[in-house]
Design brief:
- The complex is a heterodimer.
- Chain A has a single domain, classed as Immunoglobulins (Immunoglobulin-like, Sandwich).
- Helix content of chain A is 0%, strand content 50%.
- Chain A is built from no helices and eleven strands.
- In chain B, a hairpin with a 5-residue loop joins strand 5 and strand 6.
- Chain B has one domain: Sandwich (Immunoglobulin-like), CATH 2.60.40.
- Chain B contains no helices and twelve strands.
- Chain B is mainly β.
- Chain B is globular.
- Classes of the chains: A mainly beta, B mainly beta.
- Chains A and B meet through strand 4, strand 5, strand 9 and strand 10 of A and strand 5, strand 6, strand 10 and strand 11 of B.
């Protein structure tokens, strides 16, 4: 069964450093998403991406964040200068086109900012 | 604004007992509603979804949920819980924009199952 994969599973970084979180969505999906979950809090939408551009982003997704689909398979989330409050579990998801289509989630990357 | 409330943070049930997890939503139009489950170290797996039609929807692993518009609820049920059902359960509403849903999640309910 096709699945969304994410690497790394755990990333530790120093405050102010840049991190790139990687995702491989399901191959025939066209919509891609990033969500995050701060420990003990709810899962929050960050950004959606379609046709090589951002479709929608939340107020969390400020100028420190960017997304890219550098090739035909990867989808990345970059945090330019990490802050302590960026520590969270980051989930990638993908879906086929259409509002009724399920979003398939990856296992997540736990980001720890020291 | 759209929102989802899951009033129960933790629930403990005995194996074999019935289960109901509560979910209330706030959404201006007919909602797209979802229940996801997250086991430790795993991603979110879709249990079931409601878009329209029959208000009682069946999902995987023996789960079902009932959409009640008058109560703005979408409660998840299972008649007999198994130990492997211990996990965190998230209710979500889809905020439709173009061809996709932006999912708005509730805070989650952590389910523990006693043998």
């Amino acid at each position: 069964e096709p699945e969304v994969t994410q690497t790394p599973s755990h990333q530790v970084t120093q405050m102010g450093q840049e991190v790139i979180l990687r995702c491989v969505p399901i191959s025939n999906h066209l919509y891609f998403y990033w969500y995050r979950q701060i420990l003990g809090q709810k899962v929050e939408f960050l950004v959606s991406f379609y046709n090589n551009e951002i479709s929608e982003k939340s107020e969390i997704f400020d100028d420190q964040f960017s997304v890219e689909r550098p090739d035909g398979s990867n989808f990345t989330l970059k945090i330019r200068s990490t802050k302590l409050e960026d520590s969270a579990m980051y989930f990638c998801a993908s879906s086929a086109v259409g509002p009724g289509n399920e979003q398939f989630f990856g296992p997540g990357t736990r980001l720890t900012v020291l | 604004a759209q929102s989802v409330t899951q009033p129960d943070i933790h629930i403990t049930v005995s194996e074999g007992a019935s289960l109901e997890l509560r979910c209330n939503y706030s959404y201006g139009a007919t909602p797209y509603l979802f229940w996801y489950v997250q086991s430790p170290g795993q991603g979110l797996q879709l249990l079931l979804k409601y878009f329209s039609g029959d208000t009682l929807v069946q999902g995987i692993k023996g789960f079902e949920a009932e959409f009640k518009r008058s109560q703005s609820s979408f409660n998840l049920r299972k008649p007999s819980v198994h130990w492997s059902d211990a996990a965190e359960y998230f209710c979500a509403v889809g905020s439709i924009s173009g061809g996709y849903n932006k999912l708005i999640f509730g805070a989650g309910t952590r389910l523990a199952v006693h043998p």
